[in-house]
Write a structure and sequence with these properties.
The chain has helices spanning 36-44, 96-112, 131-143, 159-174, 194-206; strands spanning 2-12, 25-30, 62-70, 79-85, 116-124, 147-152, 183-185. It is α/β, with parallel strands linked by helices. The chain has a 7-stranded mixed beta sheet, with helices on both faces. The model has no long low-confidence stretch (mean pLDDT 92). It has one domain (2-206): Rossmann fold, CATH 3.40.50.300. Helix content is 33%, strand content 25%. Bound molecules: guanosine-5'-triphosphate and magnesium ion (MG). The site of guanosine-5'-triphosphate has 23 residues, from α1. Its cofactor is Mg(2+). InterPro entries: G_ENGB_dom, GTP-bd, GTP-bd_ribosome_bio_YsxC, P-loop_NTPase. This is Probable GTP-binding protein EngB. It holds the Pfam family MMR_HSR1. Necessary for normal cell division and for the maintenance of normal septation.
Length: 207
Amino acid sequence: MEIVSAKYIISSATYKQCPGPDKPEYAFIGRSNVGKSSLINMLCNQRGLAKTSATPGKTQLINHFEVISKDGTKKGTGRAWYLVDLPGYGYAVTSQKSRNNWANMIESYIRKRPNLGCVFLLVDSRHTPQTIDLNFVQQLGEWQVPFVLVFTKADKNKPGATNRNVKSFLDELQKTWEELPPFFVTSAIDKTGKDDILDYIADINAE
Ligand code: GTP
Ligand code: MG
């Protein structure tokens, strides 16, 4: 599948302000600074579509982007769907109040958005498994939301080190999960994982 165009639609403070749920939707979440906005730009071939920053906490609202894609068949031509950039968790400088606001906003959005086809949970591939990420996986499990894992910033490490961190994370999950979720290894710099993620979305769109 290829993305033909992508445009910013709206930033919402609650799920109630989001656009009508008339298209399939895919949301990107994960720790602040993990690379959610950069990955969205990489997938859409547009550097400045989602705002990125070296300082954590850049994305504060639920950001909708409308994407038009084609998958090489006439049937799939001009298909429209939403990509959603969400604010990250684990930003140390924020107050308890804003953490609560974040938790409420994210929980309602993830649990109530009827067209949300899959959550992409991003994890920094440079680190050994972090409790905050493992806890969020458990949370998604409790909410019974379909999700996949995306290990980001693979360009920053040797492949061996990336693979070790990915394996450790999956090993941790295996302690409580019977079935592991699909996972992708990505780099927004060298576009690793782009085609695999777009094909995965195309498959869900086609269902
Ligand atoms: P918040 O909106 O603050 O939660 O962050 P985010 O998860 O959207 O991260 P963002 O995309 O803004 O990227 C954070 C920083 O990491 C920026 O300086 C990016 O340039 C950098 N970055 C993101 N993805 C990659 C990657 O694949 N490789 C490298 N080397 N840097 C990356
Ligand atoms: Mg962001």
